[in-house]
Design a protein that fits this description.
- The chain has 144 residues and is mainly alpha-helical.
- The protein contains nine helices and no strands.
- The chain starts with a helix and ends in an 8-residue tail after the last helix.
- The relative contact order is 0.14.
Length: 144
């Protein structure tokens, strides 16, 4: 039963990544170049065949300009409660009507109001990776 649930999570993550890549008007090859992750591996992630590591999710999030936390939640690495206000970050980051300066200003204002603890993406990825090492195993490594 848990394996079926994990498969649905991985498939849902793949669909979400494909949607985000489409919204960013980015090809799979372009995403591969920006993330230093192979094109075939990204394709497998989008098709729900692979569950990526926290590091790969972080690279994808950075390239697509979405929060790594939202990807961690969709991948089943973090609980939704732990991501909290990051959905607002995603909404602001994805709004095409805003300039980069406006996005930064809005995020700064929002974080000041909610008292958001601004841990760096690398710190979060390290914490998530440590907590998730056993379940991910060798299955998630990119094929050479």
């Amino acid at each position: 039963m848990a394996k079926l649930s994990m498969q649905r999570t991985v498939e849902g993550l793949g669909e979400y990544l494909r949607e985000q890549r489409g919204q960013a008007q980015m090809s799979l090859r372009q995403l591969a170049e920006l993330t230093d992750v192979s094109n075939p591996y990204l394709s497998q992630i989008e098709r729900g065949l692979r569950r990526p590591s926290a590091e790969v999710l972080q690279q994808i999030a950075k390239a697509l300009r979405i929060s790594a936390e939202s990807l961690y939640v969709r991948a089943g690495i973090l609980d939704a409660d732990e991501s909290g206000a990051r959905m607002v970050d995603d909404a602001i980051a994805l709004d095409p009507r805003l300039t980069e300066r406006q996005k930064t200003a809005l995020l700064d204002i929002y974080r000041s109001f909610v008292g958001f603890d601004n841990a760096s993406d690398s710190e979060l990825a390290a914490t998530v990776t440590e907590a998730n090492i056993a379940p991910q195993g060798a299955d998630n490594q990119e094929d050479a």
